[in-house]
Amino acid sequence: MPKTKKINFTYARGRRKTASARVRLIKGKGETLVNDKPFEKYFPGITGKYLLEKLLKTIDVKDKFYATIKVKGGGKMGQLDAVINGLAKAFVALDKEKYKLPLKKIGVITRDARERERRKVGTGGKARRKKQSPKR
């Protein structure tokens, strides 16, 4: 049986709404994969690229690390925010003194706790909507 290469990595979990991302941060050169697809293919468009660039530029680690990420639940934006949150937490777990303050400043470590509000009975379809009452 061939020997597999042991990889040292830092693990973190990021969340947003119903999306959950498991991040493995690995030192070295490589391609960041999200659900076995390149980051740019999984999150097409400018927003994903911009948020990742902003995170990496803030702590000056471009081309020094790569990550393998598994993300599930929610929509694409929720998943993207969960991935960014997970990456930030992984960098903090790697070196707290060096990375925590700059990442906290741009607001990527803090989990956004806002969730979808449940629909209530008798409200006419929405969470906070009130049914129309007759005038007389």
Automatic annotation (TrEMBL):
Biased composition (Basic residues): 121-136
Keywords associated with the record: Ribonucleoprotein, Ribosomal protein
Cellular compartments per GO CC: small ribosomal subunit
Keyword Metal-binding among record annotations: no
Gene Ontology BP term (one): translation
InterPro entries named in the record: Ribosomal_Su5_D2-typ_SF, Ribosomal_uS9, Ribosomal_uS9_CS, Ribsml_uS5_D2-typ_fold_subgr
Region ranges (Disordered): 114-136
Cross-referenced PROSITE patterns: RIBOSOMAL_S9
Any GO MF annotation of the entry: structural constituent of ribosome
Membership in a protein family: Belongs to the universal ribosomal protein uS9 family.
Protein name: 30S ribosomal protein S9
Organism from which the protein derives: Candidatus Woesebacteria bacterium RBG_13_36_22
